[in-house]
Amino acid sequence: MKYNFEQIEKKWQNKWDENNTFAAKNDTSLPKYYALVEFPYPSGQGLHVGHPRSYTALDIVARKRRLEGYNVLYPMGWDAFGLPTENFAIKNHIHPEIVTEKNVARFKGQLKSLGLSFDWNREVNTTDPSYYHWTQWIFLQLFKKGLAYKKKMAVNWCTSCKCVLANEEVVNGVCERCGAEVIHKEKSQWMLKITEYAQRLIDDLDLVDYINPVKVQQRNWIGRSTGAEVLFTTTLGDELKIYTTRPDTLFGATYMVISPEHPMIKERADKIENIDEVKAYQAEAAKKSDFERAEVNKDKTGVEIKGIRAINPVNGADIPIFVSDYVLMTYGTGAIMAVPAHDTRDYEFAKAFDLPIIEVVAGGDIEKEAFTDCATGVMVNSGLLTGLSVEDAKVKIIEWLKENKKGEPKVNYKLRDWVFARQRYWGEPIPIVHCEHCGAVPLDESELPLVLPEVDSYEPTENGESPLSKLDSFVNTTCPKCGGPAKRETDTMPQWAGSSWYFLRYCDPHNVNALAAKEALDYWLPVDWYNGGMEHTTLHLLYSRFWHKFLYDIGVVSCPEPYAKRTSHGMILGENGEKMSKSRGNVVNPDDIIKEYGADTMRLYEMFIGDFEKAAPWSSASIRGCKRFLDRVWNLQTCVTDGAGYRPEIEGEMHKTIKKVTEDIEALKFNTALAAMMALLNTITATGSITRGEFRTLLILLNPFAPHLTEELYELLGYGGMLNQQKWVEYDESKCKDDTVEIVAQVNGKIKTKLTIDANASKDDVLALAKEDEKMAVAMAGKNVVKEIYVPGKLVNIVVK
Length: 801
Ligand code: ANZ
Ligand code: ZN
Prior knowledge:
GO terms for molecular function: aminoacyl-tRNA deacylase activity; ATP binding; leucine-tRNA ligase activity. By secondary structure, this protein is α/β, with parallel strands linked by helices.
C-alpha cells in the first residue's frame, strides 16, 4: 500500500477538528501545561517557513505533554494591527479590516495543514473590538496609576511612514520597517513609564528559566549603571550637574561637555559670546539619531562655549565647557566631565581639540590607557585620593561629595520610557478625551471598547496627525468629567500593545466582564514554556513582562512573571545560507513543500534541519531524506509479527531510544531525537520484521513529530483507540546501559588502534581480540609477548621483545 500522505493528513485533521481533540479543558483538578508560541502578524505574504520551526517544536512539546497526562493549553491567534496591512490597504483601496480577514483565513488554513495541535476554540485577534476592549482597559489602569502620561519630546520620526517610532524600531538610524531616514521631531506623545519597572525587570530575571542570551540582552538593554551625580558650578555662579560612573577620576577632568539640547544654552544665551556658532551646531546635531551620535568610532565634533567656564568642586580648577553631540540629553543629566586620560571618547575629543590630558590612574601609556577603562589601578595626581585603589577612591570621593553637598551616588538606566502612540489608523484607539477645563480625561470603563471608526482615507495627514483627526464625528465629544465640549485623542496605540497581554486572554478568551476570569488566570499561569524569536527579546518580551508586572501590582494576575521558561529558535535561511527574502527570490513556500512531500515530512524536516537554536540553511536533498524515513516507517506494516514485547536482540536499543527521545525533546534537541529513531529503524529493518509491541512504541515516540502518519498506522494495526489518547512510553533505566565499549589497544605502551568490545568481556576474550587485530599483529610480528595488561573498559597493552 502506498503512503498517501495527502489523504491521510486531511483525514486526521478533520477528525481532530470534529472531536475537538486538542481543546484545553477548564478543569482545574488536572495538572496543567501551558505551551506558547508567538502569534503571527498575518501579513499578505502568508506563512513563512520560519514560522513552523517554532510552532512545530512546541507542538511536539504539547503533544508529548498530553500523552504524559497533562491538560495542555497550546493556543494560537493573530497580532493583526500594524503598518504593512495599513499600507496595503492604502495602496489597493481596501479596508484594513478586510485585508486582515483575508490574511487570517490564509494563515489559518496554512497552520491547519501543518497538523499543529492548537486549540482553535481559543483563537484571539488583537483587532477584534472584544479583544482590544481589554487592551484599552489596561491602558486606562496604567493612566490611573500615573504610568501613562503625555510628554512633549523629540521623537524619532520616519520620513516615509510619516510616523513616530520607538527607539527599538530605529535600526542604525533608519526605520526598521521601511528603511527610510529617521529624523528628530518635537511632538506631544503618550508614553508608558516602563522605567519605573527597570530594577524589577532586572531582578526578576532570577526567577525565570530563560536561555542565557535572552537574559543578557535584556539586562544590557535595561542598562543599569552605578555612579554619582556631581555638582559643578559655572563662572556665572550657576549649578551644572554631571553624571559619571567614575567619580574617582574627578581630578582628571580637564573640560566639560554638555549636550546640544542642554537647557543651559537657552537659559544663558545672552552670556554665550559665540551663541550663533552654538546654535548652528545645535541645528546640525538635531539631524542625527542618538544611535549615530553615540557611535564610538565617529569623528568628534563640537564647539567651545565662550564666556562661561565650569569649576571642578574637588579642586576649584576652572575648565572650558564644550557643546558636543556625543553627549545625549536623554541620559544622565545631559552633561559630563571629560576625563580624556581614561575615557576613549573624551580622549579622541581632547586630541581633536588639543585639550590637556591628566592621568589620574597610574598605568603609563596614556594612549593605551584611554582605550581600557583602568578600573583597577592606583590613583595619582588626585589630592585626597592619591595612593588609593580605584575601588577605595570611589567610596572615599562619594563620601566627600555627600559631606560637602557636592554630589551623591546615583543609579541610571539606559532604558527609556515607551513611546506609546502612532499617528496611524490601524491600531487601538486611545480611550482618552482632551477637555480644555479638565485636561486629559479617561473614558469611563463602561464606554469600552472605543471602536475604531470608519474613515474615508487611511492616509496619514501631511502634518503627521492620525487620519482619525480628520473625522469630526469621532473627534468632537463631551468631557466625561464636566460634560463640556471636548476632543478625543486621535493617536492610536503602537503595534506592541495587543501582544503585551495576549497570553492572558487565551486563558479565558470569551469573557465579556474581564480580560479573563481570575480562576482561569490562576490555573493556567505562568506560561510554562514560551518559544519565540531572538529579535523580540528587547521589545515584545520586555514590554509584556512590564505589563504583566503592572497587572500583578493591581491584583489582576497572581504571579510576578508571565513566562516560566523562554527559548528561541534560529532562523531558516536560503539554500546558500543567505537570508530568505522576496527581493532575493529565494523564499520557500510551505504550501509547496506540504503539497509535494506532506505535512509530516515538512515537520520532520524542520526539526531535523540542525540545532534548534542555530540558523540553518534550507536543503531540498535533506527533505527527501526525511520523506524516505517516513516511507520506510509506513512500509513496516508489511512485516509486523505478533508479540507485545521487544525481542531480546533489540530490547536494549528500544529502551535507549525511548530515553533519548524523551530527554532530547525537553532539551530542544529534536534533531538528535530523530536521528535516534532513524538508527532504531535501521536496526529493526535489518532483522526483517517488527513485533506489534516494538511498532507501537515507535509510533508513540514518532507521534509528536509526525502526528498524521502515526495516527493512521496506529489505527491500521488495530491497537484500539486513537494514538493521541494513549500514554507516553516508558523505559527501564537498567536496560539503557551501553553494552559495548571502546578501548585503546597498545603495543609497548604505544596506541595502535581502538577496539569495540562487549562491556562484560573477560580479559582472555579481550586479549584474543587484540591479537587478531591487523594493526596490532603488524606491531607484534616476530616478537615474543612478555607481559599482557588489561585495564577493564579502558585499555589493553601487550609488551613484546
Ligand atoms: C567620567 C568618566 C571617566 C566616565 C572615565 C567614564 C570613564 P554608562 O556606563 O553608559 O552609564 N556619560 C554620562 N552621561 C552621558 C551622556 N548623557 N551622554 C554621553 N555620555 C555620558 O557610562 C556613563 C559614562 O558615560 C559617564 O562616566 C560619562 O563619562 C559618560 F574614565 O564620566 B564618565
Ligand atoms: Zn472637562
